[in-house]
Amino acid sequence: MNKLTVIIVALLVIVGGFLFYNLSQSNNSDIVSLDDGISAGNSGEVFGESEMIAETPEQTTNPKTYAIEIKSFSFQNQELTINSGDTVIWTNMDSVSHTITSDSGSELNSNYLSKSQSYSHTFTQAGTYDYHCAPHPYMKGKIIVN
Hints:
The protein is α+β, with helices and mostly antiparallel strands. The chain has a single domain, classed as Immunoglobulin-like, CATH 2.60.40.420. It contains 1 helix and 11 strands. The strands form 3 sheets. Strands 3-9-7-4-5 form a 5-stranded mixed sheet, covered by helices on one side. Strands 6-11-10-8 form a 4-stranded mixed sheet, with no helix packed on it. Strands 1-2 form a two-stranded antiparallel sheet. It is globular, with a radius of gyration of 15 Å. It starts with a helix and ends with a strand.
């Protein structure tokens, strides 16, 4: 398979799993529509295997979804600028567990993520959100929300 086919298949698997997870939750009122018409759950969800392609932030009224891989004991996008209403999905690619934990406050507070597990959060307030991995505090990242 060529690279584009692999990416498309991976995205279809992710979207299908994401939809299945959200539909399996008894209340569909927390489902939000993304700019491409695909439904996704609200912030703070952990879900299984996934592979995402990061998008570049754009000034638009449609919410976007961004991916950050956790790989080699670091957040691959250590600083990301997004717009209010956008969602970030972190996916652990390491064989050890990691967290996404706010440096101050409780905005970001994932469970321990095993390999291939993900955590998502929708940012609704402008500001700067510094975070780290609780068991590996030298792993740091920052989300800047416009």
